[in-house]
Amino acid sequence: VSAQLIDGNAIAARIRDAAQHEAKRLAQRGHRPCLAAVLVGDDDGSRLYAASQAETAHRVGIEHRLVEIPPQATLDEVRGRIAELNADATVSGILVYQPLPAGLDAAAVQSLIDPRKDVEGVQPYNLGLLAMGRDALVPCTAAAAMACLASTGIDLSGREAVVVGRSAIVGRPVAALLTAAHATVTVCHTRTLQLEDHTRRAEVLIVAAGRVGLIGREHVRPGAVVIDVGTHRQRVPGDGSTARTKTVGDVRFEEVSHVASAITPVPGGVGPVTVAMLLSNVVKAAES
Ligand code: NAP
Question: Is 171 in the pocket of ligand 1 (CB under 6 A)?
Fold first, then answer.
């Protein structure tokens, strides 16, 4: 590996430390930050995620309040609970775990959150502010990709940046943040012709396509900074008795790490920073 390894765990630790410092300051003024985490139904994955999130939140001095809503709840019932949390002055931030039970539309539910408490940055008002280049609560993964970039010390002004992916929670917000940082930004997606013609121009390449190993050496300009947002669990062929899985990204790390100047590994790159960004957003929401 010739590229500098961007250490997501170290970046996440710094973000948690800053959040802890701020949370303490707020608590001293009688305003302990509180995250209301809404679980509709009983998805096992969400429950596990909630437990680990609660532990991390408590460690930095943020209260984690699990708000459970039965699986058969209607949109009106969910609206009612979220309206209560919107009005509750002790709640600084609100998130809704996904997947939601069939019949509840995630975008419809997220749009019910008060934009000032939208710590995942998924409410249309916040995404609108971001598109306008104004201060907003930013989607955690997009903010994490930017923090990974910042850790390299790169000045983005005037740089060629290419984002692969245009989802509302990753690709588009990252493109908006790069634009705000004065990079010249190209956004690629499944209708892009000759992907490598674009990615090879990139001094900064952000990959959020959700396709295992999409980006190889041939896609990368020598010396580029490469941020891999993709996260996939992959089975590792074993001896049969011990089926194992490993986490891989959208970038073929082995190849690309020889041409890039800096790169995020998967795991240990954008992932842990995203988790820390949520806490940072809760503190930011508590301050406003
Ligand atoms: P998504 O909603 O599926 O969006 C994927 C985007 O990539 C789409 O815009 C799609 O284009 C584009 N795309 C797919 N295949 C492509 C290809 N072959 N060439 C060019 N563009 C292609 O996914 P997402 O929610 O943004 O997530 C992307 C990845 O990031 C996933 O692997 C996800 O697991 C991971 N992720 C990681 C974190 C983290 O904390 N590390 C957080 C969130 C997501 P179209 O618009 O044309 O379909």
Answer: yes
Indicate the top mutation candidate among 122, 162, 189 to test ligand 1's pocket, ranked by most ligand atoms within 8 A of CB: 189
pTM above 0.85, yes or no: yes
d(CA 47, CA 99): 11
Distance 262 CA to ligand 1 centre (A): 21
Strands, sheet with 63-69, edge to edge from the N-terminal-most edge strand: 63-69, 34-40, 93-96
Q: Which of 231, 247, 273, 281 to mutate to test the pocket of ligand 1 (most atoms within 8 A of CB)?
A: 231
CA distances from 21 to 30, 119, 286 (A): 15, 18, 13
- Cα of 228 from ligand 1 centre, angstroms: 11
| Distance from residue 205's CA to the centre of ligand 1 (Å) | 14
User: Ligand 1 center to residue 165 CA distance, Å?
Assistant: 5
Order of strands, sheet of 204-207, starting from the edge strand that comes earlier in the sequence: 4-5, 262-263, 225-228, 204-207, 160-164, 184-188
Per-residue pLDDT of the chain (288 residues; tens, 9 = 90+): 689 999 999 999 999 999 999 999 999 999 999 999 999 999 999 999 999 999 999 999 999 999 999 999 999 999 999 999 999 999 999 999 999 999 999 999 999 999 999 999 999 999 999 999 999 999 999 999 999 999 999 999 999 999 999 999 999 999 999 999 999 999 999 999 999 999 999 999 999 999 999 999 999 999 999 999 999 999 988 776 777 899 999 999 999 999 999 999 999 999 999 999 999 999 999 998
